[in-house]
Structures are given as structure tokens and as C-alpha cells.
Amino acid sequence: MNKFLNLLFKEVKELITLQLLISLLFTIFLFYFIGQMAKTEMKKAMRTQKIAVLNLDDSPFSEQLIGNLKTANFQAEMVKGLDKQKAIDDTKATDTNLLLVIPQGFGQSLETQEVKEIETYSYLRTFSLVGSRSSIIINAVIRALNEYLSNDFIKKKIPDFSPEKVKNPIKSRDFIIVKDRMAEGKPEAVAGFVSSQSLFVPVILAMIIIYASQMVISAIAMEKQNKTLETLLTVPISRTSIVTAKMFASGLVGLVSAVIYMFGFRYYMAGFMGDISQAAAASGVSGVMQKLGLTMDTRGFLILGVSLFIAILVALALATILGVLAEDYRSAQSLLMPLLFLVMIPYFISIFSDPKTLSLPAKILLYAIPFSHPFLITQNLYLENYSAVLYGILYMLAVFVILILVAARIFSTDKVLTMKLKFRKKKVML
Amino acid sequence: MFCWELRSLPDSFRILTYYLKEVRMENVLKVAGLRKFYGGLEALKGIDFEVGRGEIFALIGPNGAGKTTALRIVATLLSPSDGKVTFLGFDLKKQPEKFREKISYLPEEAGAYKNLKGTDYLKFMAKFYARSEKELGEFIERAKDIADLGTRLNEKAGTYSKGMTRKLLLARALMTKPDLAILDEPTSGLDVINALEVREIVKRFAREGISVLLSSHNMLEIEFLSDRVALIDKGLILDTGTSEGLKEKYKARNLEEVFRSAL
Q: Looking at the structure, do residues A196 and A305 belong to the same domain, yes or no?
């Protein structure tokens, strides 16, 4: 009989409860639902938008403007009459979100090079993405029209010069240098793509660590709460096996939960961002990335996997110690808080800041937190900072060994029963 | 020199040697000068007692006397601060794992895994002791017989009443026929009928050679069950003897009066 496997199966069975399955299914459903909704709303926003147009000018220029709107995917519905206030009120009663008023003398003012304002009235009936979409596009149309009119004017006045050259006498060619590689491209596009790709790693890591830690803390706290721990500690199996089985089972269930969670998260993100790799290919960023060596190969993914795995082990060992301190399931949830902080600090720093720009004490604090290293690993791998990656992995391994020794020590002494973190005075059964 | 030789012998041979030298004197568990500190609090102040094969030995005393601490030490849950505990020749401090192979502990406040069915719980616990599938089957059959919960064993332990859980746990403690059963308040939470059944079961297993170390607040239970009794108070054993012997010594009608006189 394999005692360890027996214990491991029991732990897994205990962890996979109906509540867990329901909450996971609910999470997937929720993410899928939000993702689909976002996708639908995005499609709606991209669809032909209805706008109301009150044309108080009767010139070829205003007709041209309206024509341009049609080509920009707008369905212009002309408002009859010449009363602006009536047009505003009438449009309010419809489902149209934008009213465009072309003032009288618009065409003439363009001919005389006077600045003339066209007025837009946006009806904010919702604060969703769709609500602001129409005014963004109308601004783009006006910009395009300005471009067309100014080019036309330059052509007429200085026929021998290209309007483009007149307006933009200086141009730039952008190059990006990463380590010893160089490629032509826009740095903001590359940085944006790398950060959008690395965004997923911290999210996955944070999810797995939180799920697995919660599992192991709860598993130990539940043993205490259900008064099963004392019996378990008297059966002929080593205390190290008890600790390891709990960690393995929690890690396994935590990992599966996180994968399922991420599956749902993918739907959610896809709804907002679409397919990142397709977008990159379309914008030509992927070619620049390859030239700069900013792609992760199999070895990179393997190192990333190892780093994530060790981070999970560290979290599980720490959660095991915290679980011993818990008196029951409820106190276990409170004890999860310090671990959450340890995960959230590097999580936010990796997303919003550059560790190199931090002050020395903040830097020391960041690197002392073992979970910081996998959060920073993607960028380090892209930039080929292998020594930072290696030190990070070795540091996490050292922390894990220390924590597992502490956890095993606690389980092999009276402390597993007597150690409690509570606000009341410690009570021992005599 | 002899000690070194004894340590180097295989376990089975050591047990055999022990039986030849000690068991004929019937003392399988020996507790000598046992002390336990919880920080500055001395819960046990050097207690001595011995339990023979097939003997039911009871510790009785008020709350906080040190009964549970003594039982937990013998069950390998707590480590002694001082003193020596040996069982079948194995030293508790040096070989706690050998103790665990031969003992079974039923804590006063114990529970079963709520998500496991009764039979699954018994199977899970039996697998730590069984050396073959056949033995595993025997353990489970014996446990079913002791628990006497019928088809309820196919339901999750979370649905059991306190009494049913206690019977399941007693079945778990006795199914492997351990050399020493440590029972802390074995009938705690049971109604009169179930408590009677449990006492009969404990008595039956002791007759089959299982040594029992128990504690209880119920003096009637102690009188019915135990072969010998130790009166314990404030970490000290005040007296040890059979129920009848103690009653005679203190000229008392029952153990409650014995205890009052001994204090």
C-alpha cells in the first residue's frame, strides 16, 4: 500500500468540493458572458453609426463633408428645417447619439480661409465604450477633411510643391535598439506589444499562487476545525509526507483551478482585445519583434515554467506554515492576507513600474519578495538578462528549502497543535 | 554494550527479545518520570504508570489534571519534556514511528472527513496499516461490525450525528486490532444505549489482547471498564490500583468518593 498516494488521493478528494466546482463553473460563465458582451458591443461600435445632420449651408463643401461621413461608415440622416433648437430636441427623441450642425456660410468661409466651426451635439445615453465612439470618429472625419482642404489650398497656391512636403518638412526614421540588435520601427508599438503579451504572465501567476495557497491553508485549517488533524498525526506515516501530500494536492487543484480560471479569462480578454498575435501581424510589429530578438523560444518558455513552478512551491510552503497558525477555516482566510500582499506588490510593480527606477530600499524590498522574480522574468527573458533570471530562480529555491524545512519541523513537533495565531490567550488541553 | 547490540538488531527480533524478557511480566507500556511543560506551565510533574497486555488502564481526574496531555504524549502527538515512555521496548523519543504502527488514538474531540463517505474514511485509515488487500478487507469488515451503522456508511460523514461519528471513529481506532488503544473519553457524546455498546466493544477487544489506556469523567464507566485506575490531579498521580482495591483502601462506596478522599 502506498501510504503517500493514499493520503494524496484523500487530500484531492477533500479539496474538490461541489462548492469549488460551482464557483469555477460560475467564473468561466461570467468571464465568457462579459467577453461575449464586450465583443458584441465592439462590433456594434464598428457598425454603421447613425448620425443626424442639420445642414444650414448649401454649398458643395458641406455636401462634400456629408459625403465623407458616408464613406467613414456613418449613416447621415438629414434633419429637415432650419431651426437648430428644434433639431436638437427632435434628435433627442430618436435613438441617434450625435447631431452635426453645419453652420450657414460654411462653404464660403472655407473659400476665404476663415476658420468656421461646425457644431456636434453628443447625446450621452450610456457611459459605455459605444457612447463615446461616434464623437471620436467624427473628429477623425473632420481631421481628414482639414487635411484634404489644406492640401487642396496648397496645391492651388503653390502648384510646384507637394502639400505633404510643405506641411511636414522634417520627417523621422525610427530605429529601436535592444542589446546588440537593431530594427526599424516605432518603439511605442513594440513596447505596447511586449507589455500586452507580458500582462498575461502576472495574471496567471497571481491566480495560481492565490488559488493554491488558499487551498493549502484551508486544507490544514479544516483539519483543525473538523478535529481530524490529531488522528492523522498518529497514523504511521511521516510528518514530512503529510506536509508534502497537502502541498501536492493543493498545488494540483490550485493549478487546475487557475487553468480553468484562465480559460475563462481568455474569453474575457478576447472580447476586449481580440487576438493579439493577429493584431501584431497586421500592424507589422511581429517582424520588428523578430528582428530585435524579442520573441520567446522553447527555452524561454521552459525557464518561465520552472520559475512559475518554484514560485508556486514557495507559496505552498508559506501557506502551509500560515495554515498551522490558523485555528479554523475563518481565521485561515485572514491569514491569507499577508501572502496576498506579497503577491500583489510585485504584481502591480511589474505592470505599472520599472524596478530599475525604484529607490534602493524599495528595490531591496521588491527583490526580497520571492514572488517578484517570476513577475519580472518575462521582461528579463526578452532582454536576455539571464543572470537576473538565474539568481531569481536560485533565490526562490533557497527560500523554498528554508520554508519547507520550517514547515516539516513544525509538523514534527508539538507546535503543529499548540501554535496558534489568535487574539485570545493561548489555551492548551491538559 | 548490551544497549548498542539491542539497537542494532532487526525490529522483529527486538520485539521477540522484548517479549521473552518483559511481556511475561505483562507490562507493555511503561511510563516513568514523565514531565511536560507548556512554556512556564508544568502540566505533568513526573508521573509513572505501566499498562499490561490486554489490560484496561484508566486515568481519572478533574479538568486540567493532565490526563489528555499524558494520553497525547503516549499517542506521539506531544513530545515529553522529561521522563521515559516505552512501548514493546520501543522508546517514544527515539522511535515515534514504531509507536504509531502499534497504537491507535481516539481523541476526545475528534471528527471524520466530512466529504468522505463512512466506508471511504475507514478504507483511507486502514490503508496506513494494512500490509495486503486481504488484511485491508479484514480491517474494513471489522470496522463495519464495530460501527454498526449499516447503509449509513455509504453516506458522507458530514451527514452523521455526533453519536454516529463517535462510533465510526471508535471503529477506526479498533479495526486494526492495535497493540495499544488510547481512548480519550470514548463514550463522549453518545446516548446511554450507544455508550453501553461501546463499553462492551472495548471490553471485548481487551479480552482479545488489546491493551487500553483511557481517560473518562464518567466514574461508572471507569468502574465497569478498567482493570486498574490511576487518580491524577494537578499533573501528579495520587494513587493507582483496582477500583475495588481503591474503594477498600479509602473506605469509599464508589470511585467518586475515592477521588475526593485521595485529594
A: yes
Q: In chain A, count of helices (H) and strands (E)?
A: 19, 6
Q: Are residues A379 and A411 in the same domain?
A: yes
Domain boundaries B2-105+178-262, corresponding CATH code: 3.40.50.300
Q: Which chain B residues have a beta carbon less than 8 Å from that of A411? A: none
Nine cell digits for residue A355: 524596478
How many A×B Cβ pairs under 8 Å? 91
Contact B112 A228 (CB under 8 A): yes
Measured between beta carbons, the chain A residues lying within 8 angstroms of B109 are 227
Is A380 among the domain residues?
A: yes
Choose one of A171, A189, A211: the last residue of a domain: A171
Domain ranges of chain B: 2-105+178-262
B130 touches chain A (CB under 8 A): yes
State the ipTM, two decimals. Answer: 0.86
Q: How far is CA A67 from CA A58, A59, A106, A300, A336, in A?
A: 14, 13, 15, 52, 61
Q: What is the pLDDT along chain A (430 residues), one digit of tens a residue?
A: 588 999 999 888 888 878 778 878 887 888 788 878 877 777 776 677 788 899 888 888 788 778 877 776 778 888 888 788 989 998 888 888 888 888 888 888 877 777 778 888 888 776 665 556 666 767 776 777 777 778 878 888 888 888 888 888 888 888 888 877 888 888 887 777 777 666 666 777 777 788 788 888 888 888 888 889 999 999 999 888 888 888 888 888 877 877 777 677 767 766 666 555 555 555 667 777 777 777 777 788 788 888 888 888 898 888 888 888 887 777 777 888 888 888 888 888 877 777 888 888 888 988 999 988 888 887 788 778 888 899 999 999 999 999 988 988 888 888 888 776 554 444 455 5
What residue in A sits closest to B172 (Cα-Cα)? A231
A428 belongs to a structural domain: no
Query: B229: which residues sit within 8 A by CB, 6+ positions away?
Result: B57, B58, B59, B60, B222, B240, B241, B242, B243, B246, B255
In the numeric block, the cell 453516506 is attached to: B155
Instruction: Please check whether residues A29 and A154 belong to one and the same domain.
Output: no
Range of the domain at A141: 49-171
Nearest to B231 by CA among B66, B72, B46, B101: B66
* Boundary (domain end) residue, out of A151, A171, A191: A171
Residues A193 and A330 in one domain: yes
**A429 within a domain of the structure (yes/no):** no
Are A188 and A272 within one domain? yes
